[in-house]
Amino acid sequence: MRRTNLGALVFGTILAAATFMSGTDAKSDGTSNGGGTAAVYGNIPADQVEFLSTPEHIMTVATSGAGASAIWEALEHGESVECLDCIPVVEHLLYDPNAETREIAAWWMRKRMFGVFGPGEAYERTLKVLSTDADPTKRAYAAYAVGEFLTLAGVKPLADAINNDSSPKVRAAAAHALGRLNDDGGGALSKAMTDSDTSVRLAAIGSAGRVNSFTDVATATKLVGDSSPLVRRRGAELLEELHAKDSVMGLIALVQSDTDPQVRASAAHALGVLHDASSKSTLQHAADTDADQFVRDQATIALRRL
């Protein structure tokens, strides 16, 4: 009996789907005759109905100086469009001043079956820009693109950029891109954490928190003594994410004496997550006496976690 009911249900579903499809035409003029786009979308404006981008539309939008939203729309709706002629046009957008435009361009390109990852094609050209272009801004944009292509072939070029590029803008972009690839670059992120430029150190900290394999607690612990309050704060947050028990003494020192209340608060929060009893007296003192209310609150919460 169950088998008969299931067969009837399947047949009914197929029949209903066939009936629906026969009355639905994606190219309809949208009239309200029970079929066409009106049957799918209802009475909404025509310019809000979903469409598929044609190759011609992609190339027109990419070369017209259109805004980021128009480019996003054209490329998202052209996700599955194979268009070899579009690739060099969209490739140009990898170096657009708008970060969102660069991101969607790399997203569209990495989905291509042909024309991007072969010898001498777009991906290799991007790597060449990263390693040889005279303009540091273009090298930085190329580094971001390598990360957005999401292929591990980019790990070594990005690590090389961190180790060798003279521009902090490029080194920071490469550190960020390694986070997108979920790779520490064979120690390149650790090196970036000791970079002379604050933006590079911050980019490395952000990526280290995303990379599953990052385990260099020793280098991360040194961040608690950084000259930048923002680096110290992000460093405390990274140590918390790493559950770095060996960093407790450094975090205690931050709670006790750092001049920046946000750093003290982040360090207190990290100590609560690490559940180390040796931090209890420091947290209690901060909860009772710190000049900043937020620090006192974080210390109080941390105490409850010990």
Any chance you could write out the topology, listing elements then pairs?
Elements: H1 2-22, H2 36-41, H3 55-63, H4 68-76, H5 86-91, H6 99-110, H7 122-132, H8 136-148, H9 155-164, H10 168-180, H11 188-193, H12 198-208, H13 217-221, H14 229-241, H15 248-257, H16 261-274, H17 280-289, H18 293-305
Helix pairs in contact: 3-4, 4-6, 6-8, 7-8, 8-10, 9-10, 10-12, 12-14, 14-16, 15-16, 16-18, 17-18
Kindly describe this structure:
The chain is built from 18 helices and no strands. It starts with a helix and ends with a helix. It has helices spanning 2-22, 36-41, 55-63, 68-76, 86-91, 99-110, 122-132, 136-148, 155-164, 168-180, 188-193, 198-208, 217-221, 229-241, 248-257, 261-274, 280-289, 293-305. Helix 3 packs antiparallel against helix 4 (68-76). Among the domains are: 43-112, no CATH class; 117-214, Leucine-rich Repeat Variant (Alpha Horseshoe).
Main attributes?
single chain; 306 residues; mainly alpha; Leucine-rich Repeat Variant; 18 helices
Tell me what portion of residues adopts beta-strand conformation: under 5%
> What would the principal axes of the Cα set say about the shape?
elongated
CATH architecture classification name of the domain at 117-214: Alpha Horseshoe
Spell out the helices and strands N to C: HHHHHHHHHHHHHHHHHH
* The CATH homologous superfamily of the domain at 117-214: Leucine-rich Repeat Variant
What is the overall pLDDT average?
Answer: 89
Low-confidence stretches: 1-34
Radius of gyration: 27 Å
Number of strands: 0
Task: Provide the CATH topology of the domain at 117-214.
Answer: Leucine-rich Repeat Variant
The N- and C-terminal alpha carbons lie at a distance of 60 Å
Helical percentage = 55-70%
Task: Count the DSSP helices.
Answer: 18
Main structural class = mainly alpha
Largest sheet: none
Give the C-level CATH assignment of the domain at 117-214: Mainly Alpha
